[in-house]
Amino acid sequence: MQSIVVDSGPLIALFDRSDHFHQQALSFLKNNHLPLVTNIAVITEVTHVLGFSTQAQIDFLHWVQNALTIDRETARDLPEITTLLEKYADLPADLADASLVCLCARLKTRNVASVDGDFTVYRLPGRKSFQNHFFS
């Protein structure tokens, strides 16, 4: 079954009402019918950015447990993540983004949800581009 791999931006926007993309994040979740997948690198990034509110972090972590599938294989991707960080150093790429590129490759999906334009540059094996569902 197809899924959408979710980056930190839409998740931060969902739990930070002052975020520029908050309404769009609400709309995305309301209109999405595909399973959502992320990993611990993204969850860590989101909780760090939501550090302005312990309650926002707690609400986010409760929501994640029911709304997202959390991939548990990121540690195995570390060699490829390192390669991607080197390849895309001029963006600059970060751990969360590189780990999501690897996750998409493993899941054989091009579907992402991100507020970052970087996913227009990143490529999957075979030079396949991503389809960003957050802006569709």
* Strand order, largest beta sheet: 3-2-1-4-5
Secondary-structure element series:
EHHEHHEHHEE
By CATH, the architecture is named 3-Layer(aba) Sandwich
Q: What is the CATH topology descriptor?
A: Rossmann fold
Fraction of residues in helices? 40-55%
| Tertiary shape | globular
Measured on Cα atoms, how large is the radius of gyration?
14 Å
**Tell me, what is the CATH class?**
Alpha Beta
CATH superfamily grouping: 5'-nuclease
Mean pLDDT across every amino acid position: 96
Low-confidence stretches: none
Distance separating the two termini:
20 Å
Number of helices: 6
Our estimate of the beta-strand percent is 5-15%
Number of E-type strands: 5
Q: By helix and strand content, what is the structural category?
A: alpha/beta
Number of domains: 1
Give an overview in words.
With 136 residues, the protein is of the alpha/beta class. It has helices at 8-15, 22-31, 40-49, 54-67, 78-87, 95-107, and strands spanning 4-6, 36-39, 69-71, 111-113, 131-132. The protein has one domain (4-135): Rossmann fold (3-Layer(aba) Sandwich), CATH 3.40.50.1010. The chain has a five-stranded parallel β-sheet with strand order 3-2-1-4-5. Helix 1 (8-15) packs across helix 2. The radius of gyration is 14 Å and the shape is globular. The relative contact order is 0.20.
Summarize the topology:
Blueprint: E1 4-6, H1 8-15, H2 22-31, E2 36-39, H3 40-49, H4 54-67, E3 69-71, H5 78-87, H6 95-107, E4 111-113, E5 131-132
Parallel strand pairs: 1-2, 1-4, 2-3, 4-5
Helix pairs in contact: 1-2, 1-3, 3-4, 5-6
